[in-house]
Every structure is written in structure tokens, then in C-alpha cells.
Design goal:
By secondary structure, this protein is of the alpha/beta class. It is built from nine helices and 13 strands. Helix 2 packs across helix 3 and helix 2 packs across helix 8.
Length: 300
């Protein structure tokens, strides 16, 4: 049992609440949090941080349903130890989105140094982390944002070029930045509103990496469009498939938390809400007026 201190707010929570991602009812919202182990069930005792936990350990988790609560029972293999220098709020803010950015960047498309990539919603929770990681990996980044203020945040994270999509044509910005070649990969969490333009931004043999649908789901796609676009690849990765074992979960989480601990990855928390204002947090995220991460404070 984990006594929760903080829960993360993510678009998947909204998708589940609205029925876009059906879940069995009744259910408790939230799939990411951090806190302290308060009790251990049969078969989960021990002191090895690699495989087990002890009462009093500071831990975080992602992709475990029921985080909007005072306490949650989490399978021991899904718990991640929090390094001493990392606060519970930061751990809850970075784990799901940081691991997402990690597998999007390192496990889907083979990049070469100085490749261009396009990151939609570059000032969002995943976007800011993905931009920073992409720059650390030697890539050049074009980020899309809706406002000049968000553009400044994406630039601070390392974006080489910003496409202010409320004022500029993203396809034209990409063509100009890449000398007409297109980007090697597009990271698209927006979905319906950006999908068609994203395909047009890719160079031959580029990858369309669709990992969200904040603007709605994408309509069915004729595979011939991928052929005509230059042998393009289209993928819709799922978080669970990239933390399928405890070893993979610990590898990715340690890499992410180590970057945070070393000051190499800045985690921006946009706002904190008390648990009884979770609906307000959802409305804020749905409005697209936020940048970085939203958190729910379970206890002070």
C-alpha cells in the first residue's frame, strides 16, 4: 500500500473520464503518483530496491489505475524507488511523461546525429521533456506551440525552430527549416487536427509517431498514403508495451530520474490542485492553456 502525496494529471485521465478510452465501471481516476510505502502485502516483503520494497520507502508509479486517492495498492513490480535528491512532486510529474519521452525517442525510430524532428505541443508535459531529451541526443527540433509564451518555453527547452501554428503554416515552417527535405520523425500527441500536416512534413522513410489525440482521434488512413509519401512509417505506441517487464521499467525510470537528479532535465510544473479540485485540473488541461505538468496534492 502506498500512502499518496501527489498524483499526476494526464490526458489519459480525460480520455477515460469521457469514455474515449473505455474502462470498466466503477473506477478511480489517475494512473500516476508518488508517496511512501505504508504496508506490504504477502509475498512482497524484502529490502531489495531492484525487486521489492520496504515500509517507509519513497516510491513512484505510472500506468497503475487509482491514483486520485489517499492511498493505493500497487503491485510491487510497478513501483519505482525515488532517488533521495528528487522530491515526490517532481517524481509524480516526470515519471509517466518522462518514460513516454524516453521510449518515443530511443525505441521507435533510428535517428542519426543532426536529424530534424517535429514535436507537436512542444510546451506540453511530454513536449518539454521530449524536446530536452532530443537535444541531448544530438537532434534538431522544430516545436509547435499556440502562443508566444509557450514558444519561449519550448525554445528554453532547446527547440531550434518554433512553428506558431495559430499564425504560421507548420508544413511551410518545416520545409524552410529543413531546406525542403522534411523531418526524420514527427512526434504527434494532438491527433486529428495535426495528422495530415504531420504526414506532409516527413522526409522519405520518415516515421509518423502518433502517441495521443488531444484534438480527437484520427480518421482511418489508407496505407497507400504512406507509400505515396515516400515509404513512410506510422506507429501508435502504447506505454505498457515499453515497460513490459520490471527490468525495462527500472531502466527507463532510472535514466529519466538520473537526468532529473543531475540537473540535465528540467521538470516544469504548471500548477498544483488539491484532490477535491480534480475537475478543475481536468478543465485546465482540456483548455490547452497549460504548459508542463499539472499535479494533484493529496496531502501536504
Amino acid at each position: 500500500m502506498v500512502q499518496l502525496e501527489v498524483a499526476g494529471v494526464n490526458f489519459i485521465d480525460i480520455y477515460q473520464r469521457t469514455g474515449l478510452y473505455p474502462v470498466p465501471l466503477p473506477f478511480t481516476e489517475g494512473s500516476e503518483g508518488a508517496g511512501v510505502v505504508s504496508a506490504i502485502g504477502p509475498g512482497a516483503d524484502g529490502v531489495s530496491v531492484d525487486n521489492r520494497v520496504s515500509v517507509g520507502d519513497r516510491v513512484a508509479f505510472a500506468s497503475v489505475q487509482g491514483a486520485y486517492a489517499d492511498a493505493i495498492a500497487v503491485p510491487v513490480e510497478r513501483l519505482v524507488p525515488i532517488p533521495p535528491a528528487v522530491g515526490a512532486d517532481v517524481a509524480a510529474a516526470v515519471l509517466l511523461q518522462g518514460i513516454t519521452a524516453h521510449f518515443l525517442l530511443h525505441s521507435i525510430h533510428s535517428f542519426e546525429s543532426n536529424d530534424w524532428c517535429l514535436i507537436h505541443a512542444a510546451a506540453g508535459g511530454v513536449g518539454l521533456l521530449l524536446t530536452q531529451m532530443a537535444k541531448r541526443s544530438g537532434l534538431r527540433v522544430i516545436g509547435t506551440t499556440s502562443t508566444p509564451e509557450k514558444a519561449d518555453m519550448a525554445r528554453a527547452a532547446g527547440a531550434d525552430r518554433i512553428a506558431l501554428y495559430t499564425r504560421e503554416d507548420v508544413v511551410e515552417v518545416v520545409a524552410e527549416a529543413t531546406d525542403g527535405q522534411g523531418v526524420s520523425a514527427v512526434f504527434d500527441s494532438v491527433g486529428a487536427a495535426t495528422f495530415d500536416a504531420s504526414l506532409r512534413c516527413l522526409r522519405p522513410r520518415g516515421s509518423m509517431i502518433l502517441f495521443g489525440q488531444s484534438s480527437g482521434p484520427v480518421e482511418p488512413v489508407d496505407p497507400a498514403r504512406l507509400q505515396h509519401g515516400g515509404s513512410l512509417r506510422l506507429t501508435r505506441p502504447r506505454f505498457a508495451d515499453f515497460v513490459a517487464t520490471r527490468e525495462e521499467l527500472l531502466w527507463r525510470s532510472r535514466e529519466v530520474l538520473s537526468m532529473v537528479e543531475a540537473g540535465e532535465l528540467d521538470v516544469h510544473v504548471h500548477a498544483r490542485f488539491p484532490l477535491d479540485r480534480a475537475a478543475e485540473a481536468h478543465r485546465a488541461l482540456e483548455s490547452r492553456s497549460t504548459s508542463g505538468k499539472l499535479l494533484l496534492s493529496i496531502r501536504n
